[in-house]
Amino acid sequence: MNSTVLEIKNVKKNFKGNEVLKDVNITLKQGFIYALLGANGAGKSTLLKIVTGLLNSDGGKVTIQDINIADNPVAAQKLFSFSSQNSTVDGVLTGYENLHLIAKLRHERNPRKVAESLLEKFDLTEAKDKAVSNYSGGMRRRLDLAMSLVGNPEIIFLDEPTTGLDPKSRQDLWDTIKEMKLQGKTIFLTTQYLEEADYLADQIGFLREGKIVASGTPDEMKRIAGADKLLLVFNRNEDTDIALKLLESYSPEKKDNCEISIDLTEDITTTLNVLNALTTENIELKTFKMITPTLDDVFMTLTRGRK
Ligand SMILES: Nc1ncnc2c1ncn2[C@@H]1O[C@H](COP(=O)(O)OP(=O)(O)OP(=O)(O)O)[C@@H](O)[C@H]1O
After folding, report:
1. Where is the ABC transporter domain (predicted)?
2. Is residue 299 part of a domain?
3. Whole-angstrom Cα distance, residue 13 to residue 37?
4. Which of 37, 144, 209, 288 is the most buried (most CB within 10 A)?
5. Which CATH number do you get for residue 246?
């Protein structure tokens, strides 16, 4: 079984009476990807700063591999890297120089080799002698990630790693993050993009009003927004009305003139039974589709405060 590498217990933080974090609890296991979601201003960056020792909390405890970050920040900081929202790379230096410098600062035995191998791994070898100010946004973020791997940290904290990237660069970065996980790294990221959390995360936590109000796997989280639905679309309004009566036992909901939605809470045969009933009664369907809630639906449900 994977061991716990990060434990956030009852963490609190207020800024001049503004209680941003009231009681945050998160446990993260080795080799997992955790995505912290929350609306703007929910306190995601504040939590990351506390967890990485950049900010003191007003209560609670953060341990990284059993080391309390508040008591022993130097020892804890050897176990992780933190890539903040603002890129930490130096635009004047080349990609190679940035990596070489950080490898030296982190006392790598062979900083040159570390820099070269990370440039290759992050597909930056060709651009290694260009000043970073000439890099695209995607290349800069890849360099950020490469920098975060110097020193071989156990846990990697990423604050909104793909904000501002185009879809192709985002996908490339997602692939890189997944590869980091395959190599055994534990990753804790914050994101505004629900599809990012859905694609990457093993565990998602939703921060609202200073607490994690919901957490689980992406699929578990989607259940919060309700059941899968079967949407039936008819050609004629009359057919819709007949179908509404026929399917009464499934509690159908009329969505539009020619549309009916049915919650698929019962069992997996519901869809077949509904379609059979319509065929038997010769009610012509234009089309039908299954609708699974997305994390966007969850986000809307939770930010509206229904949970
Ligand atoms: N140093 C500070 N002094 C006073 N208030 C602060 C400070 N840092 C953050 N805050 C406040 O704490 C709240 C949470 O901010 P934080 O940046 O952690 O949110 P966030 O969830 O990361 O938001 P975003 O998604 O917009 O980055 C905000 O109301 C912010 O104004």
Report:
1. 6-234
2. no
3. 18
4. 37
5. 3.30.70
Collect all residues with Cβ–Cβ distance below 8 Å to 27 and sequence separation of at least 6.
Answer: 4, 6, 7, 8
* Full-model pTM: 0.80
Helix (H, G, I), strand (E, B) or coil at 284: coil
Of 44-48, 117-121, 232-236, minimum mean pLDDT range: 117-121
Name the residue of 44, 302, 303 whose CB sits within 8 Å of the most ligand 1 atoms, as the mutation to test its pocket: 44
Shared-domain flag, residues 131 and 101:
yes
Question: Domain for residue 296, yes or no?
Answer: no
Structural tokens at position 270: 């519901």
The pLDDT value given to residue 9:
97
| Ligand 1 within 6 A of CB of 56 | no
Split at pLDDT 50, 70, 90, the class of 306 is: very low
Among 86-95, 226-235, 274-283, the range scoring the smallest mean pLDDT is 86-95
Amino acid at 180: M
197 lies in a domain? Answer: yes
Q: Which of 11, 14, 15, 47 to mutate to test the pocket of ligand 1 (most atoms within 8 A of CB)?
A: 15
Taking phi over 0 as left and psi of -120 to 50 as alpha, with beta for the rest, 89 belongs to beta
Predicted ipTM of the assembly: 0.96
Are residues 170 and 151 both part of a single domain? Answer: yes
Q: Determine the residue of 12, 45, 191, 196 to mutate for testing ligand 1's pocket, defined as the one with the most ligand atoms within 8 A of the Cβ atom.
A: 45
What's the domain range around 275?
Answer: 229-291
Ligand 1 binding pocket includes 197 (Cβ within 6 Å): no
The predicted structure's pLDDT at residue 89: 78
Residue 50 Cβ inside 6 Å of ligand 1? The answer reads no
